[in-house]
Specification:
The protein has nine helices and nine strands. It is of the alpha+beta class and 307 residues long.
Length: 307
């Protein structure tokens, strides 16, 4: 469940409004406001100002942060509360706040909690998100989950350090780990598999030529070894092109373009004296594999949430 919500002005972290109902259903105090304020200030001041979603896990709470225009919305939830619902709550909260208060009104605030009357809007939204069965017709989980998958929130961490007065104060480690579902590539299409088969045929053809050139070089002196080394290089680059096509990795497009340009040069040197149809065939296969690398994107697999 969502225990506490807070809206701050982004330029100076001034709290504008927050939840005023601090009691759990069992009547016990749910939060420590001083601790929350200290944690929020450390997250938003001790690290670079977040330009997108981030969150912080502690032993018994999870804090979600969502920057929006000139404000930052925060929700404190129990650890088991779904992340997608927490960010859906923050997005709805930010939307209602920006509709009610324009930029001038926010910048005009001079003291903390100057817009505390907005709690009358926070409370019913918080109550609804604490009863997820009421949200089936209100939110689009697939769209929110897709946003989180494509741009996962950053996680920040807190460690305890002793100050000069021997008081434990939370210090925030800047966000270094991006979380969320591990990205994978879309399944290989028919065209992708076809390009791989053609590339394998070219590799086999080059292997045969390398073996022939090696036998010729060991029996007589000629320049067949030079061509053999070029075919050997083309084998390596085509294997690398196949690897880039089939595996998720950083800078796929840059690697794909680099391999494509190198292979074009090698193919031109190797096949420019052959028949025109053979030159065209090799170039078509190389270009087809490169096109498949560019068109194959990250797969979006949405988890099924039962609400």
């Amino acid at each position: 469940m969502i225990l506490y919500a807070l809206i701050l002005r982004s330029r100076d972290i001034l709290p504008l409004t927050s939840t005023t109902n601090y009691q759990c259903t069992n009547g016990e105090s749910a939060i420590d406001l001083k601790l929350i304020n200290k944690i929020v200030k450390n997250v938003l001041k001790k690290t670079d100002m977040p330009k997108n979603k981030c969150f912080l896990r502690t032993n018994d709470k999870t804090y979600y942060f969502l920057p929006c225009l000139n404000i930052i919305c925060m929700a404190m939830c129990i650890p088991s509360y779904p992340q997608v619902l927490a960010y859906s709550f923050l997005e709805e909260l930010a939307g209602e706040f920006t509709k009610k208060y324009d930029r001038f009104k926010v910048e005009q605030a001079l003291r903390p909690y100057n817009l505390i009357e907005f709690d009358t809007t926070i409370h019913p939204i918080q109550q609804m998100y604490n009863k997820p069965q009421q949200l089936t017709s209100r939110i689009n989980l697939a769209e929110i989950t897709r946003d989180i998958t494509l741009d996962p929130p950053q996680e920040v961490f807190i460690v305890e350090e002793n100050s000069k007065n021997n008081i434990h104060t939370p210090q925030v480690i800047p966000p270094t780990v991006r979380v969320g579902p591990l990205p994978t590539l879309e399944p290989l299409s028919f065209i992708d598999k076809t390009s791989l088969i053609f590339t394998i045929f070219l590799i086999i053809h080059s292997i045969v030529i390398v073996m022939d050139s090696w036998r010729s070089w060991t029996t007589e002196e000629d320049d067949s070894l030079d061509t053999g080394w070029l075919h050997f290089c083309s084998i390596l680059f085509r294997l690398a092109q196949m690897y880039v096509l089939t595996h998720k990795q950083m800078y796929r497009w840059k690697k794909g373009w680099a391999l494509f340009l190198v292979l074009l040069g090698i193919d031109w040197i190797l096949y420019f004296s052959d028949d025109l149809w053979q030159v065209i065939l090799v170039y078509v296969i190389t270009t087809l594999t490169h096109t498949c690398i560019l068109r194959r994107k990250i797969a979006i697999k949405l988890p099924q949430y039962q609400i």
